[in-house]
Amino acid sequence: MNHTPVIEVKEVYKSFKTVQAIRGISLRIEQGQFVAILGPNGAGKTTLVEMIEGMQNPDKGEITIENRLWKGNELYLRRIIGLSLQETRFIDKLTVWETLRLFASFFAIGKDRCQEVIHLIGLEEKRKSYVVNLSGGQRQRLALGIALLNSPKILLLDEPTTGLDPNARREVWSILNKLKEQSLTSLILTTHYMEEAEQLCDYIVIIDHGKVLKEGTLNELLGDSQNDIPIKPVETRKITLDDLFISLTGRHLNE
Amino acid sequence: MNNRLHNNQLYHLIMANVKELIREPGVLFWGTVFPILMSLGLGIAFMSKKDIVVNIAVIGKNHLVRTPGDSTSILRSFFENNGATLEKSKDGTLLRRFIVKDDKLGNTIFLFSDLTWTKAMVLLKRGNLNLVLDENMGKVQYHFDPKNPDAQLTYLKLSKILDDPVKSVVGAGEEIKPLTVSGTRYIDFLVPGLIAMGVMMSTIWGVSYTIIETRAKKLLRRMVATPMKRSNFLISLITVRMALNFVEASLLFLFAYAVFGITIQGNLPALIMLFVAGNIAFAGISIFSSSHTSKTEVGNGLINAISMPMMVLSGVFFSYHNFPDWSVPVIQLFPLTMLADGIRSIFIEGAGFTEVAMPLLILSGIGSLFFVTGLRIFKWH
Predict the structure, then answer these.
(1) Tens digit of each residue's pLDDT (9 = 90 or more) over A148-167
(2) Which of A130, B258, B348, B355 is deepest in the core (most CB within 10 A)?
(3) A254 within some domain
C-alpha cells in the first residue's frame, strides 16, 4: 500500500445556521485504503463526505485531494472521484444501459467501459430494463456501477446499503471487495452497519456530534477498548464494534 | 465522428430527455392531442349555428292562458296573436314556446314559464333563467342582472320583439351580412392563442418541473458531481422542449388548416422567429422559477402561479379587452399576451417582421434576463 495521503482533511469546521455539524475533524486517507466513517444519524457523516466531494465548503480548515484544493481543480478532481449518494433516483424511463451510457458520456467514456461495469455489477440481464422496474438492491448496484464508471482513484459511498436486504447488501460488498483486491482505489464509506465496516474497511473512524471519537484499525479499536468497556461477569463473548460504539456514544448506531 | 458524437454528453443528455418524453404517453397526450381536441371542440362549438334557447319566467296569473273574467295582458295578447305554442314542461309547469327563425344567426327559441317570484329567483340563482317578466300598470317589466351580458342580450331581443313583432320576426336580419372569410371567425382567433398557450405550458412544465424533480430526486446533485457541463444540462432540456413545442404547434396548425381552413396570411420567417422568442421567454422564466426549490409541491404552486393568470388574462380564449380598461396595458405586458397577439397578427392580419419586431425583442429580452438571473441564484445541489 502506498502511504502517500490521497485525501487530507485538516481541522475542518462546518456550521448550518445554529447547528455545528463538523467540529474540527482531521483525517488522512492513503491510496488503496478503505475507510469507514461510523456514526449515528446527525453525527456529521454526510456533511463530512459532502465537503470531501466538493459540494460544501468548510467554514474553517482545509481539504486536499492528491494535494490539490477544490478551488481551481474542480474539473480534474471530478474526473478522479466516484460517488454514490443516499437515495439517489435516476431517470425512471431510461434503461440500465442507457443510464450507464449517459453518465459515461460525462467522463467521455465509451461503450467498452460500460460493458465492463455492467458485468461487474451483475446487471447484464437487466440491461434493457427501465430503472423504475429495478429492485432496491439492483438500483443500488447501478448507483455503484455509475460511481465506478470512471475507474475512480477515490470512491465516496454515502450509506450504500441502507435499506437493502442482507442478500443485496452482500452483493454490494462483493463488488467492493473485488475493487479492494486491486488496491488502486481509496474508499470512504459512511454506514450504519458495523458489519459493513468490519467486512470492508481497514480503517474505522467513529464520529458523533461533528467530532472524531475514536479511529484506527478494527483490532486497534477493539484492543484499546478491552479494559474500558464494561462487560457483565457472566458474559464470555468478545467485545464488538457495537459495544465500543455504545460505550463511546451512549447509544446504538441505528438510533 | 460518429463515435465522438456517441460519447458526447450533450447528445446523451438530449437523447435521455427525448426518451423520457416519448416513453411517457401522458406527456404526448397533454402536449399534442389535448390542444387539438380543445381546438376541435371549441371550433365546432363556435362555428355551428345551433338554436339558442332562452328561458324566461313570467310572474303573475293568466299571462300565458286566458280564463273567463281575465283582465287584459300584453304578454298574453302577444302569445295569442303571434302563434306561441302552449306546452307543459316535464314538471308540469305551463309554458309558451315562441321561435324566431334566422338562417344567418341561428334560431332563437323563447320559453316563457309560468312561475312564482320565489321559484323564479331560485332558478335565476342556478343560472337556469335569463330574465324575469311581469306586468305593472299595463307595462311589461324586465328583471335581470344588468352586468350579465346574456340577460342584457335577451332583454334587447325580447323588448324589440314585443314592441314590433312583425318587423322583428319577418325579414329580420336582412341587413346582416355574415363574414366567413378566413381570419374573421372565432377559430381564427382561437388557434394562434392555443399555439401560444402550448408554448407556455409545455415549456414551464417541461423545463421548470423537470429541474425541480431532478433536484428533489438528488439526481441533479449526482450529475454535477461528475465533469458534466452544467450548461449542457439546461441546454438539453430547453432544446428538447423547443423541438417538442415546434412539433405540437405544427400538428395543431395542420389540423386547423385541414379542418377549419386556417392559413398563415403573414410572414412565415417572422412567425418562426417570434415562436423561438416565445420559447426563449418561457425557458428563461422556467429556469428562474425553478432555480431554488427542491420540493415538487412548491414547484406545482409556483408553476400554477405563473401560468394560470396568463392563461386566463392573456387573450387565449377571448379578447382581453373585455377586462377593465385600466388592466389592459398591464395584460399587454405579459409574455403570453405578447406571444399570442404576435402570432395572431401574423396568422390573421398578415403581419411581418416590422409589426412583430417589438414583441420579438421584448420576449427575447425577458427570456435572457430571467435566464441570467435564474442562473445566478441556481441551486445545483
Answers:
(1) 999 999 999 988 888 788 88
(2) B348
(3) no
Which residues on adjacent β-strands are paired with residue A5?
A30
Q: In whole angstroms, what is the distance from residue B263 CA to residue B108 CA?
A: 32
| A133 vs B: CB within 8 A | no
Whether B267 and B295 share a structural domain: yes
B74-118 pLDDT, tens digit per residue, is 888 888 888 888 888 888 888 899 988 877 777 889 999 988 899
Same domain, B195 and B265: yes
Q: Which residues form the domain of B87?
A: 52-169
Cβ contact (<8 Å) for A78 and B19?
A: no
- Is A105 in contact with B227 (Cβ distance < 8 A)? no
Alpha-carbon gap, residue A222 to B37, rounded angstroms: 72
Nearest C-alpha neighbor of B363 from the set B255, B276, B236: B276
Residues of chain B contacting residue A104, judged by C-beta atoms under 8 Å apart: 7
CA separation for the pair A123, A132 (Å, rounded):
14
The answer to whether position B10 is within a domain reads no
Alpha-carbon gap, residue B161 to B168, rounded angstroms: 5
Q: Are A93 and B22 in contact (CB under 8 A)?
A: no
Q: Do B233 and B125 fall into the same domain?
A: no
**More confident: A222 or A123:** A123
Q: How far apart are CA A197 and CA A203, in angstroms?
A: 8
- Asked, for residue B206, whether it belongs to a domain, the answer is yes
Global pTM reads 0.79
Q: Output the 3-class SS for B223-238.
A: HHCCCCCHHHHHHHHH
Rounded to a whole number of angstroms, the distance from the CA of B379 to the nearest CA of chain A is 11
Cell of residue A122, nine digits:
451483475
B29 and B63 inside one domain = no
Grid cell locating B73: 295582458
Rounded Cα–Cα distance for residues A143 and A135 (Å): 12
Minimum distance, in Å, between the CA of residue B13 and any CA atom of chain A: 7
CATH of the domain at A108: 3.40.50.300
Any domain includes B207: yes
CA-CA distances (angstroms) from residue A92 to A82, A210, B125?
22, 36, 50
With 0-12 / 13-18 / 19 or more C-beta atoms within 10 angstroms meaning exposed / middle / buried, residue A154 is buried
The answer, for B223 touching chain A at a CB cutoff of 8 Å, is yes
| Cβ-based contacts under 8 A for chains A and B | 72
Q: How many domains does chain A have?
A: 1
Task: Count how many domains chain B has.
Answer: 2
Task: Tell me if chain A has a CB within 8 Å of the CB of B227.
Answer: yes
Which of B210, B226, B231 should be substituted to probe chain A, the one whose Cβ sees the most A Cβ atoms within 10 Å? B226
| B2 has a chain A CB within 8 A of its CB | no
Largest CA distance in chain B: 101
Across B57-62, average pLDDT: 82
Q: What is the ipTM of this complex?
A: 0.87
**Interface touch A88/B222, C-beta < 8 Å:** yes
Beta-sheet strands, E only, within chain B:
52-59, 85-88, 94-100, 108-115, 131-136, 139-143
Phi, psi of B106 (to 5 degrees): 95, 155
